[in-house]
Amino acid sequence: MSFKKSLIPLAVLAMTQQMVLAQDAAKLERVEVTGSLIKRTDKETPAVVQTITAEQIRKSGFGTVEELLRANSAIDSAGSIQDGAATGFVNGLATASLRGMGAQGTLVLVNGRRIAPAANVDVNFGRGTLLNINTIPKSAIERIEVLKDGASALYGSDAIAGVINYILKKEFNGLDASASFGSADDGVGQTANASIAYGLGSLEDKGFSLYGGIDVSKRDRVMHSELKDKGLYDHYNAYRNLNGETTRFTPDSIASRWANYYRVPPSLTGSTPLDGRNVANNDVSGANYLGTMPGCPAELTVGQGVANRPAGFTNAQASLRTGSCRYVLDDKAEAVSDQDRISGQLRANLKLGSSWTGYADLMLGRTKSTSLNAERAITTTLASQQVPLVIITPKLDGSLAQRGGIVLPVTHPDNPTRGTANPQPVQLMYRFHDLPALDINEQTATRFALGAEGSLGAWDIDTALLYSRMDNKRTQKNRVRSSLLDASIAAGTYRFNGEVNTAAAIASVAQDAINDGDSSILSVDVRAGRELFAMAGGQASLAVGAEARREEFNANADANYLAGDYVGLVANLASGKRNAYAAFGELSLPVVKALEVQAALRFENYSDFGSSTTGKLGFKWNLLPQFLIMRGTASTGFRAPAISQIGNASTVSFNNFQDKRYFDPIRCNTSNAANPVSRADPPDLRDCNLLNFTQGVPLAQRPGNLPTMIAANPDLKPETSKAASVGFVFSPTRNFDAGLSYWYIERNKEIRLQRSSDILDAYLANPANSAQIVRNPNPGTWLPGQANSGPILAVIRKYDNFNFTKTAGLDFDLNARFPTQEIGRFTLAVNGTLTKRFDEQILAGTAPRDLLGSSTSEVPKLKGNVRLGWDVGAWSSWVRHNHTSQLARIGTTEPCLSSSSAAGVYRRENGSCYVGAERSWDMGVSYTGFKNWVLAANVLNLTDDYGRSIDIPSSFNFWDSGTASQIGRRYNVSVSYKMD
């Protein structure tokens, strides 16, 4: 039989199916699908929309919706904040990022409408707008629709890479309750979740319906000390030792409960021979060490439980002084924070005549995360009479808050030289052991919608009044205040003798530091759609709408923040409000039976920066009806500057740069390129490593991140974007379908913080470009004979519009069902993303950087999973394999591959020049043999895989730091009850 003749039966079958489906379509309810405002019976639109149902969420095995979304192949790690542990300015906050474009390029909706952003100024990531997905009740979700395409023409700002739309349940009859418990190996990281929902009434039968539900969850804290059995711990320590770093969990801090004390010399210049080494006088193990307060346990005392030269010490490092007391920072290093969540939804629907329905929708959520940190120390740096101020913190007004360490006068009761033959002031390296270092973050979400749906003549109308608000409060417990500490030292109220102080004594030095904020959206919109006229392929349809929106944002800090009185804390402020008005429309044209064309246009005007017009074209072509569909889109998009970026905002952050090392042109002697040294005496680590470059630099020689002062820019322009996609959906039978889609996104005028590296490049090229460089004004820090030559303390940065990011790739999916009567029903699902490019150009005139497959972008070349399910009788089981390809570390991987150093060779031989590939396995089983009950159990990361890590695999640098996945193998059991 010829190929042409073989198509005849297929064509006849296709025509028959089309006729039957056309008859059934009239009976089907038309619904709105994310990516189109026109209600339709066919859920395959020109844009790719992935639907995740409530049943799929339950069967996924993931403890939270956040984890489920992060497993999606189109969602990356770089732009998605995880809520596991405190990350800079936020905790308890979870966001999602599509295509590596950051959370600011992914719009999150609830029931097709916006939610208020978190009132956090997240300058570390430069995202600006953070949409928290942690406060949405899991039990209220009917489905999640992930639109993997630009959609600003329909939804406005932020929908550059796509949209994640949470569709909540509108109506439910009966009772639905569930509970689950999870834990990692050895009972670590336990979690507990419970939910209950109840609904009554029916719009069709009774003219009303009411639905409500509540979710609660509890997550236990996980410390790094509980994860020593994870990863290749011995390999990791061997690598650290070869790289000039001590073994993990070595007592590594000189600041302990039992203070080490030092003289306050006229100067810290010079060095003194000790233990056969010339030890700099500014070294805490140097000649200025006088002794240690009594009481230090033997296991923390140098010369007893702590070696004078722990493994990993380089020849240049001074030996620890016998008798000094140390502290193990890792004992208080937290991997996952303690967290409590509660959220709920209440939905009421009321029939308003024969063609209208009114509804009220209330959603509330609260997330409280409590992080535990090491007890705080003021400083581990020595001061001198010449340079007494060793703690320097930038303030929002551009000035510097400066203070010295803890210096006890000879009259203080805890000064160990008091009453001796040589009484003198002493400075302490001390840890405030009775000030628990808790960081409490509370995020509270409120969302209320009041609306009506119905028809007016030929128009289908949906209108709603929406109020969405996010409140956050961050409380850093027991922060030492500079003014209180000075007064307490003078009065002797707080004791530094290792004993626990009274509440009054603690209050004499410390106070809770509080940041709070709120953001809100108040909007009213109306959307209307109707059929227009008949075309060859059906009825042309139109949807139009308008929206008015008021946005407000406030992030505040208490007065002590503003004064710079909290030692070591910086303040971040932002406030502003704006109005936005939009008009939009969409047109669907069924040109012929097999071809649908769509067009959308949106005009939006903001009160703070101006207007934006975006458009979208799309088509869907049934090449072989119900067998093969071709579809594609082309669109433009935009992102409005966040209020914290364009409004009244001032922020302090920290910055480093790992692409290359920067030297201070005044203070660093680079005549010996292999060993640049500071010209200062004593030397300053910052002089020859301004941005804390770490590759090949031992830990003891790293200065830490550079403070930066940041201001908003009222002249910012919105980001713009172009996006395109084309793909196929192949469905030869009802039990098999496959899809392949090519996508391209280009984002221009990107809103970023100026990079410290670019500011330093300009300064090094021309010293006249010094306006953004902040040097220490204290003449005691200047080089001899050189005015204004103090060390660089900070860099001033601002938000600005930069160049572009371009990314492209392929999405693929396959779903197959194999029903058999004998052994049950098998299902196979394959989903993945193959990214082909991810290019970035920040400054015009520079070469674009290829960041695909790098840890800088965290966009892997391949990410996907394969899931095999088996249902037989009342049993349902599944197994899933997850894969994410390895990532290169820019500035690190290439040198590692050719390194001749012992540490480099060790990394290479152990396969650690790259961030490792993830190849983990999950499995689960459920049973429905008891009426109304579902019992389920699953195991995630079955093989306890730790391949996705940096350097040598270990729990301490596992790639997904701060998330539940870093604790390795996890078990979960659940039970649910549903009665209609």
Major β-sheet profile = 22 strands, antiparallel, barrel
Task: Tell me the radius of gyration.
Answer: 31 Å
**CATH superfamily grouping of the largest domain:** TonB-dependent receptor, beta-barrel domain
How many H/I helical runs? 12
Strand percentage lies at 35-45%
Mean pLDDT: 88
Straight-line N-to-C gap? 55 Å
Estimate percent helicity. Answer: under 10%
Secondary structure: number of strands = 45
Key features of this structure:
Beta-barrel_TonB; 22-stranded antiparallel barrel; mainly beta; disordered N terminus; five-stranded mixed sheet; transport; signal; 3 domains; about 45% strand; about 1000 residues; TonB-dependent receptor; Maltoporin, Chain A
Could you explain the architecture of this structure?
With about 1000 residues, the chain is mainly beta. It folds into 3 domains: about 15-225 and about 335-375 and about 440-645 and about 720-750 and about 805-980, TonB-dependent receptor, beta-barrel domain (Maltoporin, Chain A, Beta Barrel), CATH 2.40.170.20; about 260-325 and about 380-430, no CATH class; about 655-705 and about 750-800, no CATH class. Helices cover about 10% and strands about 45% of the residues. It contains 12 helices and 45 strands. The chain has a 22-stranded antiparallel beta barrel. The chain has a 5-stranded mixed β-sheet with strand order 1-4-5-2-3. A 4-stranded antiparallel β-sheet has the order 13-10-20-19. A hairpin with a 2-residue loop joins strand 23 and strand 24 (about 540-555). Helix 5 (about 235-240) runs antiparallel to helix 12. The relative contact order is 0.12. The model is unreliable at about 1-30 and about 960-965 (pLDDT under 50).
